[in-house]
Design goal:
Number of domains: 1
Shape: globular
Number of helices: 3
Helix content: under 10%
CATH superfamily: TolB, C-terminal domain
Largest sheet: 6 strands, antiparallel
Strand content: 25-35%
Distance between the termini: 66 Å
Structural class: mainly beta
Radius of gyration: 21 Å
């Protein structure tokens, strides 16, 4: 046993040590190849390597006074700082801003084996190992100067909370294993009432993609909830994927849920546009630098988006055995590619924005950034313009500069939202900041 394991452990140590060099790339992130982005991306050939490509941007945090770089005509400032791993942001009707301070729950059966240990080490250096407070905090900017002067614990003792949605006088929170309901009174600064469990969500001791997001229907009768896969590409077996890699529709009157769409490896942000549900999803790894593109797509009821059997429509992933040609034949191609490994997480429609005219019709997307591509990509907030209800043209950078020239991460953008004055809010879980981007005149 020792003669087999020792070389493997040496390989792990050498590999992780090499990955820890901040200046490995000698540069910050670059844009994804233009032909892998947009409504008709080139699907690159598979690259097969002994070990998966990994390159981290070690988490550093922002130097004093530094901010992201903003697009022309856009200003950015810190709305709130000194937070604890802020991942998601939600704006209440009275202007208060809720922030989920959270990180992964215990997952004792995830990241096992040599490859799992490498991945866990790399993600930890990238900031994913930071402690989460398991709570939601409330931020209030009562004087309207664009900086929150109040920060208070709104709901405490949660289980890796993420998505939030207010429906009437009920606030819904998506923990890593359930949707909870809390009574809400306008203007209150804390909720001490225990949450009512509306419905369970897939979790367990692997819970590989643990983040669960929610969004309400326009009439307030339903919630839609995301749940990511329990693996990269079903290497834990399909029984472990039961009910995962999907978006659920939850009836709030009864608490009953049903699968709305499936085959979405790791959907996160959701938004409505012209009564159509949209999501951003992270696609599979270990097929190469430019494969498979993460994407933005409309979500069709009953549709299957390919995972794990195929990607970007009907491109078969031959790592998955046994295959399901019947499902591959039904796989729907996404609407718009964002580039491989950008880790698209946050999503919000721009219909209420006060940012300049180029950003008035489309979607803002928080790209958390790659840890498995050379050179890195993502680490920015982009805008995807829409025409006639569909994505069109190339993404436009809104906020960049999250990685320094030495390859260290000042921050990593996650959730995005539009506040009550039309500014774009961005949760930065490495910088521990909520950024606020406005038009130059606001």
């Amino acid at each position: 046993m020792r003669t087999v394991l020792f070389p493997a452990l040496v390989l792990v140590a050498a590999h992780v040590g090499a990955l820890a060099v901040p200046g490995d790339a000698g540069m910050g992130p670059v844009s994804s190849p233009s032909d892998t982005v947009g409504p008709n991306p080139r699907i690159a050939p598979v690259e097969k390597n002994l070990l998966p490509t990994m390159q981290i941007a070690p988490a550093r945090g922002w130097p004093a006074g530094a901010t992201p770089r903003a697009a022309v005509g856009v200003n950015v400032n810190a709305f709130a700082s000194a937070l604890m791993h802020p991942r998601w942001v939600y704006v209440l009707p009275n202007g208060d801003v809720l922030v989920a301070e959270t990180n992964a729950p215990p997952k004792p059966d995830d990241s096992k084996g040599v490859k799992g240990k490498i991945t866990k080490s790399v993600q930890g250096r990238a900031g994913a190992g930071a402690p989460g407070a398991n709570r939601i905090v409330l931020l209030r900017d009562a004087d309207g100067d664009g900086v929150a002067e109040m920060k208070t614990v709104f709901i405490d003792k949660l289980n890796a909370p993420f998505g939030m949605a207010l429906v009437g006088s009920k606030l819904y929170v998506a923990d890593s294993d359930a949707v909870l309901e809390f009574p809400y009174v306008k203007g209150e600064t804390t909720i001490t009432t225990a949450g009512r469990r509306v419905t369970d969500l897939p979790a367990g001791t692997i819970n590989h993609h643990w983040t669960k997001n929610i969004i309400a229907s326009a009439d307030g009768t339903k919630l839609y909830a995301t749940t990511g896969s329990n693996s990269n590409v079903a290497e834990n077996g399909m029984p472990a994927e039961e009910g995962r890699a999907a978006i659920y529709e939850i009836d709030l009157a009864s608490g009953k849920k049903q699968l709305f769409a499936t085959g979405l490896r790791n959907p996160n942000g959701m938004a409505w546009a012209a009564a159509t549900l949209w999501t951003v999803a992270n696609e599979r790894d270990e097929l190469g630098n430019d494969l498979v593109p993460d994407y933005l797509t409309s979500v069709k009821r009953g549709a299957f988006y390919g995972w794990p059997y195929s990607y970007y429509g009907q491109h078969v992933d031959d790592r998955v055995k046994p295959q399901r040609p019947d499902l591959v034949a039904k796989a729907v191609a996404p609407d718009y590619a964002l580039g491989a490994h950008v880790a698209a997480l946050g999503l919000v429609a721009a219909d209420k924005t006060a940012l300049p005219a180029p950003f008035a019709n489309g979607m803002f997307i928080g790209e958390h950034g790659s840890w498995n591509r050379k050179p890195p990509v993502g680490y920015k907030v982009v805008f995807v313009p829409f025409t006639d209800g569909k994505p069109s043209g190339m993404p436009v950078d809104i906020l960049t500069g999250f990685v320094n020239p030495q390859g260290e991460a000042y921050g990593r953008p996650v959730g995005v939202a539009i506040d009550n004055r039309g500014a774009l809010l961005v949760a930065d879980d490495v910088g521990n900041v909520i950024w606020r981007a406005t038009g130059a005149a606001h």
